[in-house]
Amino acid sequence: SLDIFSVGDSSAALLSRNEHGGLIGRRLTVDHKPEDPKERARIEAAGGSVRFDGYCHRVVKRFRDEPGLNMSRSIGDKVAHKVCGVSAKPDCHCVQLKSEDVALLICSDGIWEVLSEQEAADIIAAYSYKGPQMAAMALADEAQLRWEVGTRGTTIDDITVLLVALGPSDSASTELKSDASTATTTFSIDFDTSPDPSWSECSSD
Question: How sure is the predictor about 204, in pLDDT bands with cuts at 50, 70 and 90?
Fold first, then answer.
């Protein structure tokens, strides 16, 4: 079994082998976003406010512009916790693993804002023969490309990929385990120009 504890907007997906030899991606966590009605209610009851800035919803002090956190739960962010109602309490649940479950994929929102869990699974499957590090890097590279194309090169959100092989050493998981049981790739690129608010799923009010 797999115990899941999640806080914030970095999400996990389970990758499972299908009958045709490909991978199926299934999201295991729910992002903690300020616009969620229950999250907003807690924030406002604690004296904080949720504001849409034309790009995404952010947690701020009432009648102020800071701290501007675009998630409703986090580890750290002392001011947001103290005066804005941001919480560090995780969502918790247990997933019973099956023989076809071959990998756990944990990524920051810079991946999930431009790729679905199935698209991520397809990329991991395509590069798994090169080992987990190359598969993780291929996913990060694809996300970077989509940000660059979608925002015309104005911004790239933080991109982190953690790929963990699971299960017995069958043909599916052996490919992912060929170099290491866990592979991580991460980078963050910031541009001076603000992102185009008409692009990215975060912009929908």
Answer: very low
**Nearest Cα to Cα of residue 190 among 115, 135, 110, 116:** 110
> What would the pLDDT profile of 130-142 be if each residue is shown by its tens digit?
888 899 999 999 9
Neighbours of 136 (CB within 10 A): 25
What one-character-per-residue DSSP string does the chain give? -EEEEE-SS-EEEEEEE-TTS-EEEEE------TTSHHHHHHHHHTTEEEEE-SSSEEEEETTS--EEESSSB-S--HHHHHHS--B-PPEEEEE---TTEEEEEEE-HHHHTT--HHHHHHHHHHHGGG-HHHHHHHHHHHHHHHHHHHTTTS----EEEEEEE-SSS-HHHHHHHTT-SEEEEEE----SSPP-TTSSGGG--
**Residues 76-98 as b or e (16 or more Cβ within 10 Å = b):** ebeebbeebbbbeeeeeeeeeee
| 46 to 60, 65, 74, 85, 155: CA distances (angstroms) | 11, 16, 16, 5, 32
- Does the N-terminal peptide bond of residue 132 adopt cis geometry, omega within 30 degrees of 0? no
pLDDT tens track for 100-149 = 999 999 999 999 999 999 999 999 999 988 888 899 999 999 999 999 99
